[in-house]
Amino acid sequence: MKIVGNESLLLRLKNPARVIETITDSKLLPDNNVLVKWGLEEAHTLKQIGIKVPSPIEKNYDWPGQFKPYDHQKETSAFLTMHRKAFCFSEQGVGKTASAIWAADYLMKQGVIKRALIVCPLSIMHSAWKNDLFSLVMHRSVDIAYGNAEKRKKIINGNAEFVIINYDSIGIVKGEIEKSGFDLFIIDESSAYKNAMTKRWKTMNWLVKPDTWLWMMTGTPAAQSPVDAYGLAKLVNPNAVPRYMTTFKDQVMLKVGQFRWIPKPDATETVHRVLQPAIRFTKDECLDLPEMTYVKRDVALTAQQTKYYKELKKKIIMEAAGEEITAANAAVMMGKLLQIASGSVYTDSGSVLEFDITNRYKVLLEVMEETTQKVLVFIPFKNSIRMLAERLTKDGITNEIISGDVSAGKRADIFAAFQGKPDPRVLIIQPQSAAHGVTLTAANTVVWWGPTSSLETYAQANARVHRPGQTHKCTVVQLQGAPIERHVYSLLDNKIDIHSKIIDLYKEMLD
User: Fold this and answer.
1) What percent of the chain has pLDDT over 70?
2) How far apart are CA 113 and CA 128, in angstroms?
3) What totals of helices (H) and strands (E) does the chain contain, helices first?
4) In this predicted model, what pLDDT tens digit does every residue of 98-115 receive, in sequence order?
């Protein structure tokens, strides 16, 4: 097989007759060579008759945007353009969002699709998808369907070529989605659709038609059980699985007790077979990736948090009026705002006011589902550490706490277990208690529940996983919900010492 220029493809086949009959513009040349116009339609036609050819995107696309793709991203984009329905199982941090955007943009340029609906968690609508779309395909129109039902319907019925929506909004506007010309659905972190019995799954199954393009993306397609593959396969490759989930469960699970099932020996092979067509790159395979990837996750503050955040900010503005702002006062007041966002705050009387951490906790679970390794969670505030530990324990997720209250001997035991044993899965750490020296390479994902105010602590804490002995690429995830969190993360990202800018940051936050 040989590429001739940008417009044609030279194939050497044992029997070229089928190609000649199938593709009108193909030409028979000597020695069983066939010259075929190399367009997307021709490439799909050749694929359908069993001839493997590269996607035309590899030669006929300029890869727009502020950065150029890595080789594995080009390969992922090419794969997606050649499959109307497909999976992308690449690990978190390898750039599968960008790959999907480039692939969709190429299909739009070819006139194959007109509008794309991106379905993803609320936490990454802005920080991942909107930001990447703006930085990669500036020539495309983008909107986010979020807010009240009428606002969502207006956006769905609008003209934006890319519309971003979260899982739970789909059911509210499914009628508008069906009528609004979306011919590509991109579902990020698609393990949310593993259960075919849920209303969420049934709604998506109703929306996706045989001629609809559908790309489902997750790094962990069957993390909890082989049965999880059923809902995903039923959307992308329904003929690969039985009609009923119980039948599939019997194929991959063995009942060993009244309420206990274990995977059958060939369950992995079965799952791999039904979850096709698929492409996957691990961080370790992508040798051209930066060794440490930083991502942001947006977290909505609860109504209670928003109320107290606004009240405290108003109080701070009143107290600051006409008074000289000192670094000490600025640090204390900003610390209070960060505490509210984190989940709890100390009142003036010394008592603790706790908030609902469900939104932030849900995003943490999303991050954990995307990695097969252990996870470090850094939280600056002790009471929020306790709240998270209790929530994880309640949900059966093994965890340990490292804070100033834990003795040196106890810490050593916890670190040894984390590095050498299956449990704990999660270490919840007060940053200044384990930011230096210790090696925690059993994890490759660091989650900042809330930002630290120390640039040195931030860098050293991230280095706990990124050090000799680490065999995986690493990801740092910043959870952000309050404006003050975004400001602090911005300084950390730009390697600016927060303490040297704390008064400026304080004034900026008040404005």
Assistant:
1) 89
2) 22
3) 19, 21
4) 999 999 999 999 999 999
Indicate if the pLDDT at residue 21 is higher than 90: no
Kindly tell me if the per-residue pLDDT of 186 is higher than 80. yes
Find where tokens 């049965």 sit.
227
154: which 2 tokens? 């207006």
CA distance 392 to 395: 5
d(CA 290, CA 402): 29
One-letter amino acid for residue 12 of the chain: R
Give phi and psi for 94, each to the nearest 5: -100, 0
Helix (H) or strand (E) holding 79: helix 71-81
Mean pLDDT across the chain, nearest whole number? Answer: 87
Distances (CA, A) of 423 to 279, 385, 390: 31, 18, 16
The b-or-e profile of 178-190 (16+ CB within 10 A means b, else e) is eebebbbbbbbbb
- Residue 199 burial (C-beta neighbours within 10 Å; 0-12, 13-18, 19+): exposed
Residues 343, 357: Cα–Cα separation, whole Å: 6
Please indicate, yes or no, whether the overall pTM of this predicted structure exceeds 0.85.
no
Q: What is the largest CA-CA distance in the chain?
A: 91
